[in-house]
Amino acid sequence: MKVVMATNNQNKLREAREILLPLGIEVLSQQEAGANVEPDENGETFADNALIKAKAVYDIVKMPVFADDSGLCVDALGGAPGVHSARYAPKGEECRKLLREMQNVPDESRRAYFQCTVAYIDENGSGTMSASCVGKIGYEERGTNGFGYDPVFLYNGRTLAEMSSEEKNEISHRGAALRLLYEVYQERYGK
Ligand code: IMP
Questions:
Q1: pLDDT value at position 154?
Q2: With CB atoms 3.0 to 4.6 Å apart as the test, which of 11, 69, 96, 134 could cross-link to 49 if both were Cys?
């Protein structure tokens, strides 16, 4: 089965392919499917934004589409950066800014979680599913794998950027949400 991922984020696309291809689902990028759009992500929730992205691409390609809206929610910052994670700091500076804002926060208050909400649309309708990955914010950047906030997000003592992509996909918010999407595809298409 072929599906289109509504994203211009190459890291999300890579991870989605790593997770879904072994399950028999081929993921086309929106460019490969002929949809060069970048809709305004002006929703208030992860689900709003995921649906905005999925719909913008579905209206063009008219084949099964899914989108991922995700972000990092930090307890000590009242859940920020949350849905604004992509715009929290200039690209490449998000970890440094977060570490700065967290410098006086004690160990026991450094809990954070990644959330991933996936929206899917096909001729049978649309839906969303969400999953999270709970960990804590470290004190320095560690590791070179992954993207975004991975170097400062600790899970069982290691940052996500210190894990192989297989290890990250096993425990990540995106891995869990995409495995729920796979269940929907199995029900709808026997895939
Ligand atoms: P959006 O879903 O396009 O709004 O962007 C989500 C942003 O959250 C990304 O640009 C990253 O900064 C961050 N993010 C989401 N998932 C991950 C992840 O798995 N690792 C690190 N950062 C992530």
A1: 98
A2: 69
